[in-house]
């Protein structure tokens, strides 16, 4: 199989959209990611998968903390900014949760301290011990087959 076929197959898995954020030297850095999952309830652990070529990799290694922000349906613009799809350097304001930058009004804001890392293929998996959570009610931003989607009502 070639890389495109693999990417197309992985795109058939509908996911939510997150912004992973970290702060280094007083400056917040973020990236859009859908490679996120919960790992454990006790202790509360999550994992994010960051490409070795991503700038965010070093930012998380430097800060040793990160947030996962599950985006709401009306936050597609933030997803596009942090995915590098919007090139005008828009200033994005962040809140903080347990000292970690979080996206305001996200469906869920999850602050984490890195508890372990695992290098696998061309990515590093960051296991994050959840230190705090804020949850809001709204519709999620969905990504499927290379496009943003929304949940259909029954």
Automatic annotation (TrEMBL):
Pfam families documented for this protein:
Flavin_Reduct
This protein is called: Flavin reductase family protein
Q: Look up the coiled coil feature and give its residue ranges.
A: none
Q: Which SUPFAM superfamilies match?
A: FMN-binding split barrel
What organism is listed for this UniProt entry? Answer: Bacillus salipaludis
Under the heading InterPro entries, the entry gives: Flavin_Rdtase-like_dom (IPR002563), NADH-dep_flavin_reductase (IPR050268), Split_barrel_FMN-bd (IPR012349)
Q: What is its EC number?
A: 1.-.-.-
Q: Which residues form the Flavin reductase like domain?
A: 10-150
Keyword vocabulary terms for this entry: Oxidoreductase
In the record, what terms sit under GO molecular function?
oxidoreductase activity
